[in-house]
Structures are given as structure tokens and as C-alpha cells.
Design goal:
The chain is of the alpha+beta class and 188 residues long. It is built from seven helices and seven strands, in the order αβαααβββαβαββα. It is globular and about 40 Å long.
Length: 188
């Protein structure tokens, strides 16, 4: 618990909206995925492979291991006292000092600024604690809710990566959004 408190303080979390995913969160995580299956499936390729609580447990255990080994932090997102999404570092390039964030949120919790605040907290953390120079978000152009977050926070829209991800029966492009450390410092 102490390491969680230290990490959360460094992320600047208010009201415990972000918590490092732990094994006791697996059932709640599965429930939110299962409840949002159609919503999430449109943009996330792993949804169909999450068919039971053990799949969520395996994900959480992998994230704990990855955090311990590489510092790639993955947090559950809480709103109104319930787990409603996930945000994390998908990659960190220690030499280039570039990290890529990924996130998803329960359809019923969208439109309240929840994920925007979480991404802002991760930006603060990536720049101040991890010493990153650039934070990227890669998103399919048709995913309007996910696109709105980096645009709202002042990310610069970059190149389009053609055929970047297979989503079930189709292949989608990704738009790369970037926030540089010095640009974020001027924003906040």
C-alpha cells in the first residue's frame, strides 16, 4: 500500500480517482468490460478475448509485473466510487524519453471530464517523475471521444499511421497526437 500511495501522490491524484490496478480489482474490472463490451469492442482488439474474471486477473498481474520491471504504470479509473476505466503507459522509450498513453472509459461515465483529468495527471507524472520529453496518444480517427481528449488538452496532431491496428474485421489507421514537456509546462 505504501508504494501505491507514493506513486499516486507523484501522479497528483485528487480524491483517489486513479489507483494502481491490483489483483483484488480483477472482478470489478471484468464487470465494467463485460457491461461495456459493445462500446469497447468498436476500438479495442482485446475485448473478445476477455471472457471471464481470470482474463482480467491475468491482465492485472501482467500490469503489476510490467510496472515492477519497466515502470509502465497502469491505473484503474474510479468515478463516483466505482471502477469505470483504465489508463496507462503502453510504452516508454527510455532513450528517446517518449511514452505512449492508452485509456478507455465506461460509456456511462463519458462526458464528465473524468478521462481528461486522468490524462492530465499522467502528463504531469510522465514529465515530472519519469523525465519524459514527449507523451503520445495514438487513436483511430473515427474514435471521436478518444480523439477529443488530446485535442482538448492541447496535444499537437501529428502523422497518420496507415493500417496501424487490426480491429476484429477491419484495419484502422492511427493519428499520433504529441505533447512536448515545454508545451505542457506552458499549458498548466
Amino acid at each position: 500500500r505504501r508504494w501505491e500511495r507514493v506513486v499516486l501522490q507523484s501522479v497528483g491524484v485528487v480524491d483517489r480517482q486513479l489507483r494502481l490496478l491490483q489483483q483484488h480489482h480483477a472482478e470489478a474490472l471484468f464487470e465494467v468490460v463485460d457491461r461495456n463490451r459493445d462500446h469497447l469492442r468498436a476500438w479495442l482488439p482485446w475485448v473478445d478475448g476477455t471472457t471471464e474474471v481470470q482474463d482480467s486477473m491475468d491482465f492485472v498481474v501482467m500490469q503489476i509485473y510490467t510496472f515492477a520491471q519497466q515502470g509502465l504504470m497502469t491505473c484503474g479509473v474510479w468515478h463516483d466510487g466505482e471502477l469505470c476505466g483504465v489508463i496507462g503507459h503502453n510504452t516508454i522509450d527510455p532513450e528517446a524519453r517518449v511514452t505512449t498513453l492508452g485509456y478507455w472509459l465506461d460509456a456511462g461515465k463519458q462526458g464528465h471530464g473524468v478521462m481528461t483529468r486522468c490524462v492530465a495527471a499522467f502528463l504531469d507524472h510522465a514529465f515530472s517523475e519519469y523525465g519524459q520529453e514527449v507523451v503520445q496518444i495514438r487513436v483511430a480517427p473515427g474514435n471521436a471521444r478518444s480523439v477529443a481528449i488530446p485535442e482538448r488538452l492541447g496535444f499537437v496532431r501529428g502523422e497518420v499511421l496507415a493500417d496501424a491496428e487490426r480491429l476484429h474485421d477491419r484495419v484502422v489507421d492511427h493519428v499520433v497526437y504529441r505533447m512536448r514537456r515545454e508545451d505542457w509546462a506552458q499549458t498548466v
